[in-house]
């Protein structure tokens, strides 16, 4: 198949009247992409096409679905550099990270191509001679709403699971990376039957129209808490199943018994990777007083190394709107008594760069500790012991993840038992086994994202109880002759006693 066929969005009958989404390169300020916004008719058509394809795709053998998904992954591999370059232009993601995100997306699609055919129900223990089992079924049409900060990797997780499980998908990505998502949708759809993956391009208004459409069975969303809340509200009317991974305010708690330089490097990785634009970035740092001075000095050095790598290993923030929010959080902290040890202000020059920033003297009411800043900010709060650090880490409305750096097994076990988050990471701010799953809490969302558990989220379960039917007690000839006695109809034994005999 060619790249142009099939397309993921039907062509507009009046392109001259269609709005365009223009994205500026956050490094140069020049136009990075121009993407035509889907019209209202195209949005309706996208849902209709996905609904029309749903029955046939659900009946397609899981192995065949997996083979097509693997072919789609290989098509992405052929265009990986192109996808990564578009991602870099639109979001400022440094080239190596952008290509890594595409490669991660490819690996995820292959993972689901393999897991889909293995997704199975359960056999249940029932009565002797009977069978009880649970069978998974596709839910139908999935609305996938995906973010800009790692657009290919995150989208492939949702799309791969939905498609492998037998659902069809309508996919709208963030308006901050529309060119990347449009290209991704075209590449994937080229290897799938028409209607299995249909892309729409647009902004919040487009999303609202999608929520008004009937026939969507699942809302799958990675992005802001406000949008996740809106989906949950819409689902009260539509009864759609909601899977949402939303904002986070992840804490890192540092014990006194670890090497302070190693701990600072871990926190720097968590706070500054992708310029702090990761859902599971370290947003709050609680460090034991016993190593606070050495730790903070090492964290400042790590931040300054990161800032010095601007444009090669440390990209800009995605746009001026986000940079303004980051600066407002820093300014509020400083006005309330925090000290800036490095960074903390908008640099001169083109683009939307922001330095890796370390704050000390932070208090529990500052925005940098209570809200998701989504920038390269490491606010440090000194604690007297790990009990205080774990308590403060737990006192938050978000519940995505947390990191605990400790050499004490009891502390690690306490963290795993008591922190109300989807993922507790001990002594490694990033990492985890392939295929891992997580279930966020509170303002961070609900439902399992990624891994085998996401296949469960993408399916419904039918429990079947099966017993053998009794054999008929007469031949068709007897029945035609009226030979069946109503008193004995349905009996297993022609010698069964009549009602009169029982009395």
UniProtKB/TrEMBL annotation:
SUPFAM superfamilies: ALDH-like. It holds the Pfam family Aldedh. Residues 492-503 have a biased composition (Basic and acidic residues). Residues 16-463 form the Aldehyde dehydrogenase domain. Keywords: Oxidoreductase. The keyword Oxidoreductase applies. It comes from the Bacteria. The keyword Oxidoreductase applies. InterPro entries: Ald_DH/histidinol_DH, Ald_DH_C, Ald_DH_N, Aldehyde_DH_dom, Aldehyde_DH_Superfamily. Residues 1-20, 476-490 have a biased composition (Low complexity). Residues 1-23, 469-503 are annotated as: Disordered. PANTHER family: SUCCINATE-SEMIALDEHYDE DEHYDROGENASE, MITOCHONDRIAL. This is Acyl-CoA reductase-like NAD-dependent aldehyde dehydrogenase.
């Amino acid at each position: 198949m060619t790249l142009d066929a099939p397309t993921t969005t039907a062509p507009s009958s009046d392109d001259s009247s269609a709005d365009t989404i223009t994205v500026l390169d956050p490094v140069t300020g020049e136009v990075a992409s121009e993407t035509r916004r889907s019209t209202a008719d195209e949005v309706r058509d996208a849902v209709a096409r996905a609904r029309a394809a749903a029955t046939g795709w659900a009946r397609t053998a899981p192995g065949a679905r997996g083979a097509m998904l693997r072919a789609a992954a290989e098509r992405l591999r052929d265009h990986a550099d192109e996808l990564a370059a578009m991602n870099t232009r639109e979001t400022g993601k440094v080239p190596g990270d952008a290509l890594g995100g595409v490669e991660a997306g490819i690996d995820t699609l292959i993972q689901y191509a393999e897991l889909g055919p293995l997704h199975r129900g359960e056999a249940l223990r029932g009565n002797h001679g009977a069978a009880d089992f649970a069978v998974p079924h596709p839910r139908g049409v999935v609305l996938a709403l995906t973010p800009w900060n790692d657009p290919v990797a995150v989208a492939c997780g949702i799309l791969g699971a939905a498609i492998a499980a037998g659902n069809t998908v309508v996919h709208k990505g963030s308006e901050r990376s529309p060119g990347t998502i449009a290209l991704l949708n075209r590449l994937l759809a080229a290897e799938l039957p028409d209607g299995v993956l249909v892309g729409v391009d647009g902004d919040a208004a487009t999303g609202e129209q999608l929520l008004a459409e009937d026939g969507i069975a699942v809302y799958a969303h990675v992005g802001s808490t406000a949008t996740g809340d809106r989906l949950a509200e819409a689902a009260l009317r539509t009864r759609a199943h909601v899977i949402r991974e939303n904002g986070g305010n992840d804490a890192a708690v540092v014990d006194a018994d670890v090497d302070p330089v190693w701990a600072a490097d871990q926190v720097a990785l968590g706070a500054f990777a992708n310029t702090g634009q990761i859902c599971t970035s370290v947003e709050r740092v609680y460090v034991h007083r016993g190593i606070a001075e050495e730790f903070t000095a090492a964290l400042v050095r790590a931040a300054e190394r990161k800032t010095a790598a601007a444009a090669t290993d440390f990209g800009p923030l995605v746009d001026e709107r986000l940079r303004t929010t980051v600066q407002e959080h820093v300014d509020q902290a400083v006005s309330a008594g925090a000290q800036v040890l490095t960074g903390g202000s908008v640099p001169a020059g083109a683009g939307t760069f922001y330095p890796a920033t370390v704050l000390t003297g932070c208090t529990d009411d500052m925005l940098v500790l209570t809200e998701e800043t989504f920038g390269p900010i490491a606010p440090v709060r000194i604690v007297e012991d790990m009990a205080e650090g774990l308590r403060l880490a737990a006192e938050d409305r978000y519940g995505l993840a947390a990191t605990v750096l400790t050499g004490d097994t009891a502390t690690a076990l306490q963290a795993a038992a008591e922190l109300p988050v989807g993922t507790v990471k001990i002594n490694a701010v990033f990492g985890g086994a392939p295929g891992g799953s997580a279930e966020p809490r509170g303002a961070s969302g609900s439902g399992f994202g990624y891994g085998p558990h996401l296949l469960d989220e993408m399916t419904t379960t039918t429990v079947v109880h099966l017993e053998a039917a009794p054999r008929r007690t007469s031949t068709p000839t007897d029945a035609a002759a009226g030979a069946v006695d109503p008193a004995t109809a349905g009996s297993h034994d022609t010698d069964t006693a009549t009602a009169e005999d029982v009395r």
